[in-house]
Structures are given as structure tokens and as C-alpha cells.
Design brief:
Blueprint: E1 2-10, E2 17-26, E3 29-35, E4 46-47, E5 52-55, E6 57-62, H1 71-79, E7 82-87, E8 105-108, H2 116-119, H3 122-134, E9 140-142, H4 147-160, E10 164-166, H5 174-180, E11 184-186, H6 222-234, H7 243-254, H8 258-271, E12 274-276, H9 279-286, H10 291-294, H11 304-320, H12 323-345, H13 366-377, H14 382-389, H15 391-396, E13 414-417, E14 431-436, E15 439-441, H16 443-453
Parallel strand pairs: 1-4, 1-5, 6-7, 7-8, 9-10, 10-11, 11-12
Antiparallel strand pairs: 1-2, 2-3, 5-13, 13-14, 14-15
Helix pairs in contact: 1-16, 3-4, 5-8, 7-12, 8-12, 9-12
The chain binds zinc ion.
Length: about 450
């Protein structure tokens, strides 16, 4: 048992700040909260004076477990206040890592992402969903499947009690996906995705072929092949955008219809269809050659190999697209930001996620802070952003009884901030200590984690 003394407790639901509290921690849980007893001589007491305690941040779209050894990435996440994450890709039978009070909590993971390799047709897809349910998937992640396959997958997953999340199938009306039960839309699409349901422009061409093709017969190691292909595509999927697709993006955003957008957002709210926009991820894709990314000081936390891959991705992006085409991506981003604001205004639920590990320019840990800033750019206030990253993640995961607020009995996964997070989004960056399953990681410990990840050759 120890005490964080004289700290201000922040409620992420409404931004209430209760100053001068003692938060007692025991056995990995919050054991008590009450008016401070003031300082004592106990060396285990943490001085909370002038600091703010919030629930630990949750990165709801991350891929650290894609790495054979994610030690440094998990360290970085913890060091920047990420105490839990949703792993967004998996593999059959991949063992879950040992999770302890020195690593962020793995909150949910799928098995293999559904692609034409394992889910090319409705019957093979249904069999795959059953297999994944047996293998212990927490949810089904759709990526490059057709609307027809998706509907079969959703029906089977409903039967098995598993949520379906991920990428909206190309060519499906987002409203129809919401009605079918799609639980969380990632990357506002991706691609046109949600925006396609918010425009007077209707694209009647068949959607572009998936970059991963269904094999004509079942092949061994399909998962391994898909994983390798995805890993290559995943660095910057925008690179695959065709000139025709760019024309379609241009026409869709030119025909943006705010009434339609609001109606769709209200639909999401009514159906409990969540969005995890991963704005940092889509910005890094759509502005891949922006020199600001290459100059980002947070790159010091990445490996030499990652920096090389990302620099090459930026050069390829610059080579492939004309200035006019890059302007389409830039305009698309403006509408994606606008859409996030509309989603929020209409009560559609939102999550904070990054797509860290594998995605160009998206650095584990620090990227969640980039996401906070971009959500602010979209027009969300600091309390709203804090709520998305804490309480609402718990709500989505149906863990409100365990997490999401600083309350007695809940998991002691906490962040101590040096400045009031309800006053400005920048104050969410002032992480000075992290409590993970009750273990207190002070400023020095967090610096050591960052130091260890810095300047890796890898
Ligand atoms: Zn992802």
C-alpha cells in the first residue's frame, strides 16, 4: 500500500477536477481516495502536489505484437502514458505475451486479419471466423474483404458473440455496415470509407481490386503469406491509390453534403458504431513526403531500419504522385478532420488510436500524443480527447467496472500529469509518472525507458 498525496483527481467523463486528494494504491487497485492527510515522512509516498491524476491512456489501434520482440515499443508506450492497448492484428496460435506491471495491458487481440487469402468467399470466411473463435480471438478484424463476405462474417460473428471491427469493405455503404453491426470503423474508412456516405457524388464503378487476391484453391501458409504482404502494404497503403481512385476522392469531397454526414453520424450514435480515426496514421499516409515527418525528433525512438523504410516510403510517395494528386490527399485530410468533428457533435462514439508499429512515421508511444493534437485540430476539446483515450475505451471494451475513471476498486493504471489536462490538450503531454497495475514508474524510470529505446540500430 502506498499513497499519491495531495493530487488533483480528474474525472474524464466531465472534466471535474477534485484537488488535494490522497489516492491510495494496494494490490494493483485503487484502494482509497479522500481529502489529503498532508505530507508524511514515508518514503513510499508519492508527492502529488501540483499534479493531476487521470486514468492511463489506451491506444485502441496498435500493432506492437507484430514484432518478434516488442520490448522497446511497449516500453515507449508505457513511458508516454499508454497503460493499455488493443492489438489490431494477430496470428493463429500466437502466444499472448507475459503481461506484468512493467508493460502496458493487452486489452484485446484478434487472430489473423480477414483478407481474400483466408476469407475470399462467404463459406471460407465463415469457417475462418469459427476457427478464430475457437483459437480465442477477442474480435474479428476485417481488412480487405468484399461486402458479400463481410455480411456473412458479421452474421457468424454475431452468432458467436464476437465483435467485427476494422476496415469498411470497399463498396459498402457505411450506413449499411453500421446497420449490420460493424462495431468499430478504423481510419475513418480507410480510404474514402465513411466519407463515401457523406457526399452527393455516388461512385458507380466497381471498387478497386484488393491488393491481396484470393487463391484459386486453399494454399498452405496463407496466413504467413498474408502477414508478409500486409506488412509491406502497411507502411503506406495510400501508395496503392490509383489515379481513378484519386478522381473519385476529389469528386466525393467536392460533393460533400453536411446534412448527409450528420445523418450518418447520428446513425452511428444510435447503432453504437464506433470510430477510431487514427488521424496520425492517415496524416502520415496522405502527407507521407512532408519533411516535418522526416524531421520529427521522436524518430530517435525508432530503429535505423524503420527510419530507412519510412524514408523510402516517403520518396516513393513523392515520385508516384503529382503535386495536384497530393493536393487531393491533403483536401481529403481536411474532410476527415471535419468528419471527426461532425461525428462528435452528433454523439457518435470515438476512440483514440495510432496504428503504431509498422506504419510509416508513426512512433510507438509518442504517436498517441500526436493523435491527441490532431483530435484537437479537428475541434475536440481536451476533456473530450481525454475521455476518448480513457473512459470511452473502457466503455467500448465493456470494462467500465475495471477501468476508465479514477475510482476506488478500479485497476491502478494511472497517469500523473504536471499540468491540468482539462485546460489544454498540450497538458495531456505532461506525463511525469505512470502507475501500471499499482507499480509506480516515476519520472526517472520513464526517462530510462525512453533512453533505452533511443538510437537503436536494429
Ligand atoms: Zn492497423
Amino acid at each position: 500500500m502506498y499513497r499519491i498525496a495531495d493530487v488533483a483527481v480528474v474525472d474524464p467523463r466531465d472534466g471535474t477536477v477534485t484537488p488535494h486528494q490522497d489516492v491510495r494504491i494496494a494490490d494493483g487497485r485503487i484502494a482509497g481516495i479522500g481529502a489529503t492527510d498532508g505530507p508524511d515522512g514515508d518514503p513510499t509516498t508519492v508527492d502529488g502536489q501540483g499534479r493531476f491524476v487521470v486514468p492511463g491512456f489506451v491506444d485502441m489501434h496498435a500493432h506492437p505484437l507484430n514484432l518478434a520482440d516488442p520490448t522497446h515499443e511497449l516500453d515507449l508506450m508505457l513511458a508516454f502514458g499508454v497503460t493499455g492497448y488493443r492489438q489490431m492484428s494477430g496470428a493463429p496460435g500466437r502466444a499472448r505475451p507475459a503481461v506484468d506491471d512493467r508493460t502496458p495491458r493487452l486489452l484485446a487481440t484478434p487472430c489473423s486479419v480477414l483478407t481474400p487469402l483466408n476469407a475470399g468467399k462467404p463459406d471460407t470466411a465463415v469457417a475462418e471466423v469459427r476457427r478464430q473463435a475457437e483459437a480465442g480471438a477477442d474480435f474479428i478484424k476485417a481488412a480487405l474483404i468484399t461486402p458479400e463476405v463481410y455480411l456473412a462474417v458479421q452474421a457468424e460473428a454475431d452468432r458467436l458473440g464476437l465483435p467485427v471491427v476494422g476496415h469498411l469493405p470497399a463498396g459498402i455503404d457505411p450506413l449499411a455496415a453500421s446497420d449490420a453491426g460493424f462495431r468499430s470503423i478504423e481510419h475513418i474508412g480507410p480510404g474514402l470509407g465513411v466519407l463515401s456516405g457523406c457526399s452527393c457524388h455516388e461512385d458507380h464503378r466497381p471498387p478497386a481490386a484488393s491488393p491481396i487476391k484470393a487463391p484459386p484453391f486453399p494454399i498452405p501458409f496463407a496466413d504467413k503469406i498474408a502477414e508478409r504482404l500486409l506488412r509491406r502494404i502497411v507502411v503506406n497503403p495510400a501508395q496503392l491509390t490509383s489515379p481513378a481512385a484519386l478522381d473519385s476522392i476529389r469528386a466525393t469531397i467536392d460533393g460533400f453534403d453536411e446534412d448527409k454526414a450528420r445523418e450518418l453520424a447520428r446513425h452511428f450514435a444510435a447503432n453504437d458504431t464506433w470510430n477510431c480515426p487514427t488521424l496520425i496514421r492517415i496524416k502520415a499516409q496522405q502527407f507521407c513526403d512532408d519533411p516535418a515527418f522526416a524531421a520529427d525528433p521522436d524518430l530517435r525512438y525508432t530503429t535505423a531500419k524503420e527510419r530507412k523504410t519510412w524514408t523510402a516510403a516517403a520518396a516513393a510517395f513523392h515520385r508516384k504522385f503529382t503535386e495536384a494528386q497530393r493536393a487531393v490527399f491533403a483536401d481529403q485530410f481536411a474532410f476527415q478532420l471535419r468528419m471527426v468533428k461532425i461525428l462528435d457533435e452528433e454523439g457518435a462514439p470515438l476512440l483514440a488510436g495510432t496504428d503504431a508499429v509498422g506504419a510509416a512515421w508513426v512512433v510507438a508511444g509518442t504517436s498517441l500524443h500526436d493523435e491527441f493534437d490532431l483530435l484537437a485540430d479537428a475541434g475536440l476539446g481536451p476533456v473530450r480527447i481525454l475521455r476518448a483515450a480513457t473512459h470511452d475505451a473502457a466503455r467500448f471494451l465493456r470494462r467500465e467496472h475495471e477501468a476508465g475513471t479514477v475510482d476506488v476498486g478500479k485497476e491502478a493504471d494511472l497517469v500523473l500529469l504536471d499540468a491540468d489536462p482539462t485546460a489544454a490538450v498540450a497538458n495531456l503531454h505532461t506525463v511525469s509518472a505512470v502507475v501500471r497495475a499499482g507499480r509506480h514508474h516515476d519520472t526517472g524510470a520513464l526517462s530510462a525507458l525512453k533512453e533505452r529505446a533511443t538510437g537503436r540500430r536494429g
